[in-house]
Amino acid sequence: MAYAYAPIGPGRHNKSDVTAANNTTASARTATLTAVVGSLSQQIQVTQAAMDVLTVLNPTFEVGVNQTEITVNLQASGTYTATTNTDWITPVAGSTTTIARFKVLTNPSLLTREGTIAFTLNNLTQAVTVTQTGNQLTIAADNTGMSDDAMTLASKMGLGWNLGNTLEATSGLNANGTYSASETLWGNPVTTQTLMNGVKAAGFNTVRIPCAWSGYIVDAETYKIRDSWLLRVREVVDYCVNNNMYAIINIHWDGGWLENNPTYAKQVEVNAKQKALWEQIAVAFRNYDQHVLFAGANEVHFDYGNPTSEHIEVHQSYLQTFVNAVRSTGGKNTYRNLIVQGYNTNISHTDAYFTMPTDPTSNRMMAEVHYYDPFDFALDANSTKYYWGAAFAGLGNTSTWGQEAWVDTEFAKVKTKFVNNNIPVILGEYGAMLRLALTGLTLQNHIASRNHYLNYVTKKAIENGIIPVYWDNGPMGNNSSGLFNRNTGAVVDAEAVNAIVSALDN
After folding, report:
1. Is 310 a catalytic site residue?
2. What's the predicted TM-score (pTM) here?
């Protein structure tokens, strides 16, 4: 509304109302009013602000799996903001009031994903939906960079080290049916290239990367893994591959959904999840060469007693599902070396019950066992068995079993069952905790016997054609097994590292 005033006497005014229609355009406009009183006139210029306008002309996009760029066409009367609900859609410089450009990153997943871009101008909001297809499940076989069969590759892998208590860190199943997970949840820092450089420099050539996946599932029906987690695991794998090291990716404890359920009651459910996760993992790493290996499980068991025929049958089905899922993706995964685990990775159980799964690709599988014997020395924090080896035989603080002769016998079983039949074996975990709460001579003897244990077990593994992969849980405190400063990559337990690495020369 505009008003014109004209004096008609002292202290008095006359008022006229002028009505302005709504401005429905995106541009400001002006008009001139002329007020006339008698022989007098006065011109008044009126400017009306533009109406807020925000219109998206192409609100939906469907794009392919590879990185691309999209251009959103709009009409906007001013400066707008654009936000996305995902990190795989990012703005590109050069946007104007009529176009906004965005980069869409390559989809690492097997499954289709959807993201939203929200444009906002004052009280106006417009949305754009971007749907990106997933990778094709099966592609043609590709043996580029995959020339080595299992025995040949095993001969190149050297000493191994576990990135323990890191990418597998999870709280397990919460009361609401979800999982909590984070790389730093169990106290270790974010993994860096610097750490892997230190591991390589110390003499290790293989890194086992225990992984959890359940805490990163974004769709309970399809078991879709969050893209950012697949990319993070890929970053860590790259830290190894950048150093020409071998990387082993697995499904670790992960809340126990796979590990604790070798039963008929859980078989169908677990196999469905096992299949869905391994198809996605396999596709995400399909283009990596033979420096990347997949391990189907960790320590599948029902309890710590002898397994029943049910436990063995169901456990074997989980491994067969793993092999089938990986091979179904084609590409380099047709030839990738796969690692399958004996029941609870226990050597005696593996020797007695384990059968290698059927594989359409010949000579591309390895077996896996773990070794923490004697348990009271290696892992029992409440035990007073601080010593190990012939030098301490007969002492009250030395276990009555699991000494050098036991190592010889157990590893000989592995060699006979697998290595002698051209099936390499990964000793995926072994080690003994460092008991720094001890003091004086007791501590000295404990450290000496622990170093002897690490050297002897490593040496005997190598002699029997087994690839030793030391278990490192990160910290260097009491009852821990850390070898490196996880922030700097520096060796923090030089005696233990020397005990392991020197076994190559013994």
Report:
1. no
2. 0.89
Of 259, 299, 368, 410, the catalytic one is 299
What phi and psi values does residue 366 have, to the nearest 5 degrees?
-125, 155
Question: What's the distance, Cα to Cα, between the start and end of the chain in Å?
Answer: 97
Q: Which domains does the chain have, with CATH numbers?
A: 2-48 (no CATH), 54-132 (2.60.40.10), 150-504 (3.20.20.80)
Residues 168, 368, 410, 429: which is the catalytic one?
Answer: 429
Q: Which stretches of 235-291 are assigned E, i.e. beta strand? A: 246-250
- What is the dihedral angle through the alpha carbons of 195, 200, 203, 208, rounded to the nearest 10 degrees? 80
CA distance 438 to 445: 10
Q: d(Cα 205, Cα 157) in Å, to the nearest integer?
A: 6
Question: Residue type at 473?
Answer: N
Binned average pLDDT, 10 residues per bin, the chain of 506 residues: 46 64 69 77 75 92 97 93 96 92 95 95 96 96 98 98 98 77 96 98 98 95 95 98 98 96 98 98 98 98 93 98 98 98 98 98 98 98 97 96 98 98 98 98 98 98 98 96 98 98 89
Has 62 been annotated as catalytic?
A: no
